[in-house]
Amino acid sequence: MVKKDIEVFYWLQRCMDFVLPAASVYFAFLWFYADETVSQAAIDLALMLGALFVLVSQLTGLYRSTDLWYQKGFEKLVIKSWLITVLIQFFIVDQTQFNNAVYYSLLLAIPVLLWFYRYLVYHFLQKLNRRGNQRRRVAILGAGKVGRLVAQNIQQSLLYAVNLVAFFDDDKALINQHIESLPVLSNLDDIALKLAELECNEVFICLPVSSEPRIREVLDSLANSSVVVKFVPNLFSFDLLNASWHDFFGLPVISVYDTPLNSMTNLFIKRIEDILLSLFAIMVSAPVMLFIALLIRLTSNGPIVYQQVRYGLNGRPITVYKFRTMYVDSDQSLMVQATKNDRRVTRFGKWLRRTSLDELPQFFNVLRGEMSIVGPRPHAAEHNEFYRNLVPKYMQRHMVKPGITGLAQVNGFRGQTEQLEKMEKRVEFDLHYIRTWSLWLDLKIFLLTFLKGIIHDNAY
Length: 460
Description:
Layout: H1 3-32, H2 40-60, H3 74-92, H4 100-129, E1 136-141, H5 145-156, E2 162-168, E3 178-179, E4 182-183, H6 191-197, E5 202-205, H7 212-222, E6 228-231, E7 244-248, E8 251-255, H8 264-299, E9 305-311, E10 317-323, H9 347-355, H10 362-367, E11 372-374, H11 381-387, E12 403-405, H12 407-410, H13 420-435, H14 439-453
Parallel strand pairs: 1-2, 1-5, 5-6, 11-12
Antiparallel strand pairs: 3-4, 7-8, 9-10
Helix pairs in contact: 1-2, 1-4, 2-3, 3-4
């Protein structure tokens, strides 16, 4: 099944995920209130639940994988999406206008229906795939890492109805062996004739890019056959773990180091998220910030807010605001991180650092567009110059705006990095966030920050 077919399939699934909750609510009220006209409130509830479930499912990743929904694991995503949907509608819908028994029964029954229809489709696809005469016979040229990965994906997929026949490889040590339950029959000489004997009508070429002459020979050999040829380049010698394919004006392009936040749509969503959350945070924390400012003024001499130059998006310098936590006449060298019982830190400053309340002024950085609520934490410029030569891909952290909180922070990697391994782990989390960004991930990190990320033993 080609990509376009899969996209159509998942749009149909989204339609089902909208129609089923909406129809369930509508017909339930129609059934239990047979003598009355279904109220506009019930119709609004039906449409809202359907649309909200599809939106939440998109954010939780229910539609992300082409195979996940019918494999083990889709149940958790369905129930997570439905629980979030129900939680949101509790804040929107006035439940007192509905019969409680009908209303709550529907909230419990709909996720069961969402599971049930997925299982029906699963068994239908299984039955369809058992029809061997409708399957394409497929061979894989190259029994290396990519060839084995292709075989695994095909064997696990119900959306790609084929019969895998065999591997072909030039490696004599592999010939006559069995890999992924498939035989490695012979080398690639006379491959067109061998495929015809096996009645194969499709092949995947999974040879390394270093074998370009051999790939050309195979392509020339298959040029005069009716076999469908698909080329899967073996690029495992490069760091392409998170790479993705794109169509660039008709040219296939691999994004090696990239982020979903290069999309204008995602950037717009991220900016709206930042504005709304920062305005909310400023309004809620305004009394706290005024109280902190007063205590800083009363407990030590110097400015209330400390300004520090750090690197922002694309490595450009920005001025970051923090409540001052150190004495003015202390050595505030940027290369010397604060440590436990650091004498440069004021008594009140220790509490501010431990509770992360010294970071509150950075919500104004977010409003100005220099930072985000969620993103890699900005390091001092001197620390950047120091670590960029020690930690691989360190500067890729600046592909997105720095954040007040981040994936590394909620996983415990915040504060002092006295060991290089700690910085490496922090960068690993930052890069994972950059490559897998989603609105749902941002909201999850934002909530986790309040649950376990505000107070931390490593914050000095």
